[in-house]
Structure formats: structure tokens, C-alpha cells
Write a structure and sequence with these properties.
Elements (H helix, E strand, L loop, with lengths): L2 H16 L9 E3 L3 E5 L6 E10 L6 E8 L4 E4 L5 E3 L4 E9 L5 E11 L2 E11 L1 H12 L10 H4 L8 H13 L20 H10 L19 H14 L11
Parallel strand pairs: 2-9
Antiparallel strand pairs: 1-3, 3-7, 4-6, 4-8, 5-7, 8-9
Helix pairs in contact: 4-6, 5-6
């Protein structure tokens, strides 16, 4: 264990020994100072939101510093020093980059204020299988059609066309609440699209990304009729504001 990991574990241990700190006690009240999350397939960043309130009826609380324990964790809040008037509430949003991480990940965010010091503890459970599948997909985008991944990305597409095929082949990633940051929202693309555009993406995907090629001729699971029905559905359901004829 290196010194950075030792420091993080000491901070977490101190936080647990101190208990919830000033939760429920004036003047600074936290909804929670410990949060845990189980990582989902395709997830690369985990966001935790910590809610706090100045429970004093008379005194302002001045937050002077918010320090994550390492560079893969960031914190978002109003500009510091952050003054909370009596009865005022706010939140600190923290984001942890979990790419390349496995197992149980522990992070600490130290909050210093005129009400004292609070340690916010963030715990993320990253299943080995999830991390392994992400690594496989980044190394070989067609890997989602083989092995255990085929259960989610191949079997549900068999015999499907149109909207049902979209839900089985595309929506599983593009409409997931926990989709990876590099997986776009198809309803919010900042470029012109069209049937040829969608046909090209479905058929060949994109080299160097998580987007696989779905055509059987490219090693994917979809036949020509399925690709045609999927391109027709995408062109109709996600219309472009301008015409596009070029494939990716």
C-alpha cells in the first residue's frame, strides 16, 4: 500500500470514528456524509450529490475549502469562499472517474468551513466482470457480440425489426440512464443526419470507439433486412434538421 492509499484509508477511518459529525447539530447539517454506488455496465463516471443546510438561525456559515483526496475525483459547488446564510441550503456535486478501476473504490472529499471540518466518503463497487467487459469493448468493439456480452447484445435482436430492434440493439446503450460518457444521446446530435447516415453507422460502426459494426458482413448479428428496418426507424424517429447523405 503506497502513502496516498494509506492517507485515504486514514481519512475514511477518521470519518467513521467521528460518526456523522455535525449532522443534526447546528449550525451545519448534512443529509448524508457517506454514499455508496454499485457501478453499472458502461459507466465511466459516478456522480454523488451531498446536500447541506445552515441550520443556524443567526450565523452565516463560510465554506472555505473543498478538497478531493485524489485527481480522479472532482467537486462542483458555488465559488469559494461559499457563504450560507442562516437556513440556506446547498449541494456539493462530486464526480469520480472509474475508468480502469476495479473492486471497491474509496474516495474522500474534505470540506472545511467555519462550522468545522467534514469528511465526505464516496464508495464505489466496480464488479470485475463489468470492468473486464469495458476493457474488452475498448480493445475490440466487436467483443460485445461474443461470450457473456452476447446475452445482452445479440440474443435480444434475433428476429426483431423496427422499433423492437432499436430497443434491443441501440436503446440498451444509447438510452441507458448510466450510459458511458462517450455514448451519445441520439436525440441530441449536433450534426445533420439522414437514412444513409444511420445505415452507415449501424452497418460499420466506428473504429476506435465503443460503437460496433452490426452488419453480418462486418462480424455483427444483423442481416440486411434488419439493418434496413433499423435505418428506416432511426431516420423517422430521430429526424435531421438538414439532409445528410454521407456515411460515417
Amino acid at each position: 500500500m503506497n502513502m496516498r492509499h494509506l492517507r485515504i484509508m486514514i481519512l475514511i477511518a477518521v470519518g467513521w470514528l467521528l460518526g456523522p459529525g455535525p449532522v443534526g447539530a447546528a449550525p451545519l447539517t448534512w443529509q448524508a456524509i457517506y454514499q455508496k454506488h454499485d457501478a453499472n455496465p458502461g459507466e465511466t463516471n459516478v456522480v454523488f450529490t451531498f446536500h447541506l443546510t445552515n441550520s443556524s438561525a443567526l450565523e452565516d456559515v463560510l465554506i472555505t475549502a473543498v478538497r478531493p483526496s485524489c485527481g480522479c475525483t472532482t467537486a462542483k459547488m458555488p465559488p469559494l469562499p461559499w457563504r450560507l446564510a442562516p437556513g440556506a441550503a446547498g449541494e456539493i456535486e462530486t464526480t469520480v472517474d472509474i475508468r480502469g478501476k476495479r473492486g471497491l473504490v474509496n474516495k474522500v472529499v474534505t470540506v472545511e468551513s467555519s462550522a468545522g471540518t467534514n469528511l465526505l466518503t464516496l464508495v464505489i463497487n466496480i464488479p470485475e466482470g463489468r470492468a473486464r467487459n469495458m476493457d474488452l469493448a475498448l480493445a475490440d468493439r466487436q467483443a460485445v457480440f461474443r461470450g457473456e456480452c452476447a446475452t445482452c447484445h445479440v440474443q435480444p435482436t434475433v428476429g426483431q425489426t423496427g422499433v423492437a430492434l432499436y430497443q434491443a440493439a441501440c436503446g440498451i446503450c444509447h438510452e441507458s440512464d448510466h450510459r458511458a460518457t462517450m455514448v451519445p444521446n441520439l436525440a441530441a446530435l449536433n450534426k445533420p443526419t439522414g437514412r444513409d447516415y444511420w445505415d452507415g453507422w449501424v452497418r460499420k460502426g466506428k473504429v476506435g470507439s465503443l460503437m460496433p459494426a452490426f452488419a453480418q458482413s462486418e462480424g455483427g448479428p444483423l442481416d440486411e433486412n434488419q439493418i434496413k428496418s433499423l435505418a428506416d426507424y432511426l431516420a423517422g424517429h430521430f429526424p435531421s434538421t438538414a439532409s445528410a447523405s454521407a456515411t460515417p
